[in-house]
Amino acid sequence: MSALRFYINDQKNIRYAFMSASKPVVFIYLAVKKSDELSAFLLDIKEKFSDVIVNQKYLFSSMLLKHEFFPEGLLHTSEIRKK
């Protein structure tokens, strides 16, 4: 299990990881930009720690970025004119 801890600490995309106090479960929060990075991490960890990892469960989330291209100065000016 200590080799898994060193591996987790060495990964740049892992934001945080912790072990459950009640049972031997490791929770990892991983942030990637591309699905290829996620696939590579999952394959790598399966290959290196197949004797330690019995089961894997995934919870996926994504961040939606909103880009505003309307100039902020014009936005405020148009709101003032409406009143």
Describe the structure in your own words:
The chain has helices at residues 2-10, 35-48, 72-82, and strands at 14-19, 26-30. The chain is of the alpha+beta class. Strands 1-2 form a two-stranded antiparallel ribbon. A hairpin with a 6-residue loop joins strand 1 and strand 2 (26-30). It starts with a helix and ends with a helix.
Give the tags.
3 helices, two-stranded antiparallel sheet, 83 residues, alpha+beta
Q: What is the residue-mean pLDDT, rounded to a whole number?
A: 79
Number of strands: 2
β-strand percent reads 5-15%
Strand line-up of the largest beta sheet: 1-2
Radius of gyration: 21 Å
Structural class: alpha+beta
H and E string? HEEHH
How far apart are the first and last residues' alpha carbons, in Å? 65 Å
* Helical fraction: 40-55%
Poorly predicted runs are none
Largest sheet: 2 strands, antiparallel
